[in-house]
Amino acid sequence: MRLLIVEDEKRLALSLAKGLTAEGYAVDVVHDGLEGLHRAGDGAYDLVILDIMLPGMNGYRVCGALRAAGHDVPILMLTAKDGEYDEAEGLDTGADDYLTKPFSYVVLVARVKALLRRRGRAGASPVHVLGDLEVDTAARRVRRGEEELPLTAKEFAVLETLVLRAGEVVSKADILEHVWDFAYDGDPNIVEVYISALRRKLGASLIRTVRGAGYRLERTG
């Protein structure tokens, strides 16, 4: 899943991005409200972490503009302020949850996961069944037959990208974009490393290589 952090405290933003990336999310960071509105308005994100005190446009206005434009992406608002009025204003503009600084990173991750689970329940089922393979994108659990398969956060993120487009060819560039982030400038062959790891754990025949195009997760196990 892809997250956007809109936070002008650069040290905090990068710290959150590093932690959430380790959880298996693809994370983009911007430090300005107008840029945040532009990015979030593209509709490419599963959740937005939005600070209130931002240059260019404050978080209240960014949230309100997104909701007015019909975007239903979950929004977790952050603020250094504390008080019922601020929380009410944030929620009135359409935010889904609210966290006051300073906050525990563990609490933030729990709120993020809860919002993503809630979004999954409101839309498509988070459990995907392909033959004897079962992938629960909300609980982040994978089973094949009766066996639960332990995956790393990045392995799960790669598998999730393929599961959501099962039967389709997914390019290496698409996997890089959704599992890493738009600024990733490392070796693109890292995708092959994770595909090989998934084949070892799930079975070599489940993920097919389509030469020159990408990878396809077969619909039957």
Question: What key attributes describe this structure?
Answer:
alpha/beta; four-stranded antiparallel sheet; 221 residues; 22% strand; five-stranded parallel sheet
Give a description of the structure.
This protein has 221 residues and is an alpha/beta fold. It is 41% helix and 22% strand. It has 8 helices and 12 strands. The strands form 3 sheets. It has a 5-stranded parallel sheet, with helices on both faces. The chain has a 4-stranded antiparallel sheet with strand order 6-7-8-9, with helices on one face. It has a 3-stranded antiparallel sheet with strand order 10-12-11. Helix 1 links the parallel strand 1 and strand 2 (26-30). Helix 2 (33-41) runs parallel beside helix 3 and helix 6 (153-163) packs across helix 8. The mean pLDDT is 83.
Can you summarize this structure?
With 221 residues, this protein is of the alpha/beta class. It has eight helices and twelve strands. The protein starts with a strand and ends with a strand.
Strand order of the largest sheet: 2-1-3-4-5
- SSE arrangement, N to C: EHEHEHEHEHEEEEHEHHEE
- Mean of residue pLDDT values: 83
Radius of gyration over alpha carbons?
18 Å
Task: State the helical fraction.
Answer: 40-55%
Strand content: 15-25%
Helical run tally: 8
For the largest beta-sheet, the strand count, sense and barrel status come to: 5 strands, parallel
> Count of DSSP E strands?
12
C-alpha termini separation: 24 Å
Anisotropy-based shape = elongated
Low-confidence stretches: none
Give the class from helix and strand content and strand pairing: alpha/beta
